[in-house]
Amino acid sequence: MNNSRTNSNGGYDAIVIGAGHNGLANAAFLAKAGLRVVIVEKNPWIGGASVSRELHEGWIYSNCSYVCSLLRPEIYRALELAKYGLQVVPYGGSVTFTQDGNYFGSYVDEDVSRREMARFSERDADASLRYHADIMRQCRFIRQFLLRTAPDPTSLKPFDVKEMMHLGREFWKLGEDTLGDLIRFYTMSISDYLDEYFEHPVIKAAYAGSGIIGSALGVMSPGTAYVLLHHAMGEVDGSIGSWGFARGGMGAIAKAMAGCFEAHGGEIRTDAGVEQIIVKGGKVTGVALENGDEVHAPLVVSNLDVKRTFLQVMDEKDLDAEFVTKVRNFKIRGSSGKLNIALDGLPEFPALRGNPEMIRGDMHFIDSIERLERAYDDWKDGSWSKDPYVDLLIPTLTDPTMAPPGKHFMSVFVQYVPPKLTKNGVKGCDWTDEDRDAFGETVINQISKYSPNFRDLILHAEVRTPRELEAEVGLTEGNIFQGELTLDQLLFNRPIPGYAQYRGPVKGLYMCGSSNHPGGGVMAAPGANAAREILRDLRKPNTVPEGWLDD
Amino acid sequence: MTDQNKAPNAGKVVIIGAGHNGLVCAAYLAKAGFEVNILEARHEVGGAAASHEFAPGYRVSSTGHLLYRLDEQVIKDLDLASHGLEMAASDLPTVALGSEGRHLKIHDDRITGEDVSREDRNAFMAYRERMLRFARIISGLDDKIPPRIASGERADNIGLGRLAWSIRRLGKKDMREFLRIAGINIYDVLEERFENELLKGALSLDGVLGTHLGPRSNNSVFTALHRLGGSVNGKQGAVAIPRGGMGAVSEALVKAVEALGVSILTGAEVGHVEIENGKATGATLVTGEIMPADYVISCADPKTTFLKLIGPRQLDAGMVRKVSNVRQKGNAAKLHLALDGLPKFTGLEAAQAGHRLVVAPDLEYVERAFNHVKYGEHSAHPVMEITIPSVHDASLAPEGKHVLSAIVQYAPYGPGSDSAGFEAQVMETLARYAPGIREQVVASELLTPNHFEDRFGNIGGHWHHAELALDQFLMLRPVAGAAQYAAPVDGLYLCGAGCHPGGGVSGQAGRNVAQLISGLDK
Q1: Are A215 and A202 in contact (CB under 8 A)?
Q2: Does the pLDDT of residue A2 top 50, yes or no?
Q3: Total tally of structural domains belonging to chain B
């Protein structure tokens, strides 16, 4: 990818800033429609947060995002990602280790899962049937809106009125009870929601984790039930709610998208960070690169998050003051960290004796709602969680291409890690290398409590706090979703009310990152939706699939 | 009452519970020609809208001590003024207490006090105006039966259309802001607008008082709006102290209903509602005595009504489950102090002791106070809303003496509730702002959510019967399918704070139910 075609400096129809998966998807759909598109990427590699990197010799790290489920199958098909080399291998199951040396497993086979649950609580095993049915009903409902542009409820334009009516009709069809549940789903805390079904603390903790991933919210914060839904609505091979590994790491997604894009004549320039979006006479005319070059085109699509787009690479005087204030108020607080570890062999988890298969899925070490909530209290106080929630995976058990034979790669996602620290009562202190290492040590200790030989197997570990995520990937404050998934930043409110249809406040400027509807999680939906709106504005035939019901 | 006013369906009504909503409901139904009997389990009437003598000669409001949303139509219709309801003080300013005597006074849209920047003052004027406007969207629904969603009924669709229109009418800019902030937390909304920590802390209290929320919890903007929707003497957002305490509201209501011929039976605890062939036919007292009726109205909290008075056997499983899941964790405690003189708050003039005093020095403080209750502990450093009603109303204490009434958060419901250590911590916090207060205390009382449950029978000790939250509001209060006051049993109606539009001594649920039954005055 590094030796991309940089033959001409003009004649582009569109420039896409940032070669993340959304930028790539957006560019690919535009290129398919016949536009001449160039992507400018600041890093020497592509992928943004869906990236594979060899950071230790012989090991490929998915060093940001690490599993795949939300990537829309419609996009997968439309961009022929399989043809360009993407393979998603499903994995199943998860295990939650308890402090008393026991574990709670979740299995692909539903009957086995229920039996396991009954080991903790018969009542919960029964409730799980109802729980999964209810979650699935909500997932089915929301999925049809992922590849649709959210209508502006304040607008009387035909598109918005038509879409509002469509939304209304779909809501209506649900009926009173389900609609009531839907409202509750968007406003309740995951803790309260789970209390309605389950009684056992370990079972609740096992389910609650995905309600906080990537969010600066605690399990007891109203609004986290939706975050759980966001993590449940994906699919692998038509199996809703399941997760998979991209073979070769998450960079394989970006690579396949880039393959499609380039096959349609697209051009990618790496090492080409944008200094400024050029605006003349109220219209964008191109971008000025950090290396002094200028690239011109009548359309500029930003895959950067909304804060970076408007506060860093645009000149404030090109924007309305009130708009800038709204961008400043956009909530993009980082809350996550990551450890990427090269292992000399497989770590042992003594609690799993007799059932070593369990390490093929997600592993968690928090066994009560209260411990999860206290982890969040630390974040509020400006510190990383002392008893963190980790989502641990060993992808090399499923995809051996990522490490030398017999060796393994471990991905450890961590909640909560604040973007700034409070030190000695002073808020807003920057992370230092010592802080980062101390954080890494906290996480390694947490894992070591359940795996005594783990520490000795570590050959190399990359520790990433929000500081590293921001510096390298360009995610402001290290927020993995390019903005929190709360009610004020969803649907027609995302990223900013009145600007939720991928169009920026300047003519010719578009936004395609996860800051836009429907948000983050390697979905590629914002990129695809933005392409549809651009093609609509250009009166070009649409190349972007609309969401459909496949069940 | 004349015969022309008599509703054609007028019959015999039994109301369970003589709380203020039950009394209001009784009055309207009696006016419409119904024969109304109220059954009250306790020996006093008024439910939680009560005053009590906690030490010889010292009286206070038992729960809420400020009136801010008593329906003005109710006051007028029932002529409560002539029945003795009078405000000892209306439109109280708020004083936010800070460290070392620093403080701010907030009154209407004005802030006075040191350290507040011009930007904050201006921002507050805009904020207050906007919040009042947004609050009217919500309070505009207070006197309506919540529309059902997806019922297909014309009246429901009109109701929903009206709600949509009231939001649309805000104009593009405000509508966007309303849709953005109505569901989120007050912490972020205040952080976006203000610099002054003391100001933000004090304003955040409006979003968390009486709830299981911290300032960072989403939904706290909504509770702040709910609070700001009411009015006193025609002034929206004002707070008042009734003469004689909150019990005076109930006393005036009792006089009003008795004048209308309603009978109130105290010490009459209802065991269950009589149900025959899916229709309520009366209420059975725990003594076994049956009080037959054409209409039964329960003012108990939703869980008591559904799970005890109706009983799970009369309900479908889905309804039982929904009701069991209603959230009603009470977190508010009440401190009552009998004082042998007016306490001296550092930095305040004596006259300011009569204001609404707020201990919520900054947002983090309030959030940390909330942290404890998530784990069933009481706050190490609690937040407080303090009034000294005897400044305005000499009848509450012996001459020259005073009573202090403070809502204290957060106190857990459940085993951690009765911790003796809590009162010591509350006093320590109070003494930080009024250093000599401990020496002035003649008698004291700290009521926790468990006390409220014991005293008033509301499960969870929650002042609003059910948490005020977006998922428990309007057509979802108390639960979907029973939010239009009609229980899923013919002839049985829900009333009380657990129904739309929630608690806060408004009387609106009572009025709405009466109008629903009588079919008059639509």
Answers
A1: no
A2: no
A3: 2
Number of folded domains in chain A?
Answer: 1
Q: Does any domain span residue A305?
A: yes
Selected residue of B134, B168, B179, B329 to mutate for chain A interface (largest A Cβ count, 10 A): B179
Q: Is A426 on the interface with B (CB under 8 A)?
A: no
pLDDT band at A5 (very low <50, low <70, confident <90, very high): very low
Does a structural domain hold residue B372? Answer: no
| pLDDT value of position A1 | 38
| pLDDT in the model for residue B415 | 79
Q: Do A177 and B480 touch (CB under 8 A)?
A: yes
Q: Which pLDDT tens digit goes with each residue over A130-182?
A: 999 999 988 888 888 899 999 999 999 999 999 999 998 988 888 888 888 88
The single residue listed with the structure tokens 């990551």 is A338
With contacts defined as CB-CB under 8 Å, which chain B residues touch A196? 321, 325
B318 inside domain: yes
Q: Alpha carbon of B116 to those of B200, B355, B453, B476: distances in Å? A: 11, 20, 41, 41
Dist CA B353 CA B103 (whole Å): 12
Do B269 and B296 share a structural domain?
yes
Q: Is B495 part of a structural domain of the chain?
A: yes
Give tens-digit pLDDT for B367-426: 999 999 999 999 999 999 999 999 999 999 999 999 999 999 999 998 766 677 899 999
The Cα–Cα gap between B142 and B502 comes to 9
Alpha-carbon span A96 to A111, nearest angstrom = 18
A222 contacts on B by Cβ (under 8 Å): 213, 217-219, 469-470
Q: What pTM does this model have? A: 0.96
CA distance A493 to chain B (A): 6
Confidence of residue B522 (pLDDT cuts 50, 70, 90): very low
Q: Which residues of B373-404 are buried (b: 16+ CB within 10 A; e: fewer)?
A: bbeeebbebbbbbbbbbbbbbeebbeeebbbb
Show residues of chain B in contact with A186, CB under 8 Å.
183
User: Residue B276 belongs to what domain range?
Assistant: 3-50+71-86+245-327+458-521
How far off is chain A from B324, nearest CA to CA, in Å?
Answer: 8
Residue B379 lies in a domain: no
Least confident of A143-152, B188-197, B268-277: A143-152
Beta carbons of B151 and A180 less than 8 Å apart: no
A154 at interface of B, judged by CB pairs closer than 8 A: yes
- A318-338 pLDDT, tens digit each: 999 999 999 999 999 999 999
Terminal CA-CA length for chain A: 38
Q: Which of B160, B470, B472, B477 best tests the A interface by mutation, with the highest count of A CBs <10 A?
A: B470
Choose the mutation target among A191, A193, A219, A220 for the interface with B, i.e. most B CBs under 10 Å. A220
Three-class SS of A158-173 = HHHHHHHHHHHHHHHH
* Residue B151 scores a pLDDT above 90: no
Give the domain extent around A254: 14-88+247-331+484-538
Indicate the SS3 state at residue B26.
Answer: helix
Q: Which residues of A touch B479 (CB under 8 A)?
A: 180
Distance from CA of B175 to the nearest CA of A (A): 7
In tens, the pLDDT along A394-436 reads: 999 999 999 999 999 999 999 999 999 999 999 999 999 999 9
Residue A234's pLDDT band, with cuts at 50, 70 and 90, is confident
Contact at CB, B470 and A373, closer than 8 angstroms = no
- Which helix (H) or strand (E) covers residue B474, if one does? none
What is the C-alpha separation between B257 and B519, in angstroms, rounded? Answer: 20
The answer to whether position A446 is within a domain reads no
Question: What CATH number does the domain containing A269 carry?
Answer: 3.50.50.60
Report residue A500 as tokens.
């939720």
Between chains, do A222 and B180 touch, taking CB under 8 Å as contact?
A: no
Whether A225 maps to a domain, the answer reads: no
Mean pLDDT of chain B: 95
The domain that holds B286 is classified in CATH as: 3.50.50.60
Select the residue of B183, B367, B480 nearest A487 (Cβ to Cβ).
B183
